[in-house]
Design brief:
22% strand, 269 residues, alpha+beta
């Protein structure tokens, strides 16, 4: 049995692979997999941490264990890592210079996972694109747009460029729907109708209380804004659309006109 375990499967100079090395590596991989499962269950059982932070913590721990596992696995096969690193130092410098952007993405991924400025399930706006974060990896972040398209963004795009995180501190965000009415309209009646429309709308929070604002005397209309808060940040455009339909119907019932743009032309004879 001892001879079988020490049987050499491959040899190249001082480097050799024995049966016992294969068995050790196999056992090591099983133990590593079980360890990752235990760590994941332990982290996700903690109620005081939200799901996004649990994901970040587990991702960092998983990457750390993977790196340690690779180093340990190489040592099990008899690799002398100090000699390997020393011999490839110049090569690593050259590769590093050529892959600066890649390393920048890796560092940005670690930053995102550590500081939680952007988390899984956050709704963000970057370069005019509104999307929800589905997965954060070391190099890239996967997001889902409102068009239900998955986009893979380099992590450096999220750390170097300015972005809006709609759900950073709170799930609810403030939104606005604008509408203009004819100058002959009763201002108080318009504001009452707009309040009725927003109060009847689903996915609009009662607290903070929605309110109506008379914003301006426009060129062709009296301009109003409905200010409201919603937790349905990602699909809020559908909420706004439904609200506009209600407003249009209520205006029609009460004979309130939404005017066309008007221009007065004076002709000198």
């Amino acid at each position: 049995m001892k001879e079988l375990l020490n049987y050499t499967l491959f040899q190249d100079g001082e480097f050799n692979i024995k049966v016992i090395s294969i068995i050790k590596l196999f056992v090591f991989l099983i133990v590593t997999g079980l360890l990752l499962k235990i760590i994941k269950k332990t982290i996700y059982k903690v109620d005081k941490i939200d799901e996004a932070k649990k994901y970040s913590i587990y991702s960092l721990v998983r990457y750390l264990i993977i790196v340690i596992s690779i180093i340990t696995g190489l040592q099990l096969f008899g690799f002398n890592l100090s000699v390997l690193v020393a011999g490839s130092a110049a090569l690593l410098v050259g590769i590093g210079l050529g892959l600066q952007n890649l390393f920048s993405d890796f560092v940005s991924g670690i930053i995102l996972l550590v500081d939680s400025s952007v988390k899984v399930n956050d709704v963000i706006e970057a370069d005019g694109l509104i999307c929800i974060v589905k997965e954060i990896n070391l190099r890239t972040t996967t997001v889902l747009t409102r068009d239900d398209k998955y986009i893979i963004l380099p992590n450096s795009n999220l750390t170097k460029n300015q972005l809006i995180n709609w759900t950073h501190n709170d799930l609810a965000s403030r939104f606005e729907v604008k509408v203009g009415v004819d100058y002959s309209s009763d201002v108080n009646q318009v504001m009452k109708i707009l309040k009725e429309a927003v109060d009847k709308q689903d996915n609009v929070l009662k607290e903070p209380n929605p309110f109506i604002r008379f914003t301006d005397f426009g060129d062709s209309s009296l301009d109003f804004s409905i200010i409201f808060w919603s937790e349905d940040v990602f699909r809020v455009e559908s909420v706004k659309s439904e609200m506009r339909i209600k407003i249009f119907e209520l205006f029609k019932e009460n004979n309130i006109i939404i005017p066309f743009p008007q221009r007065v032309i004076h002709i000198n004879k």
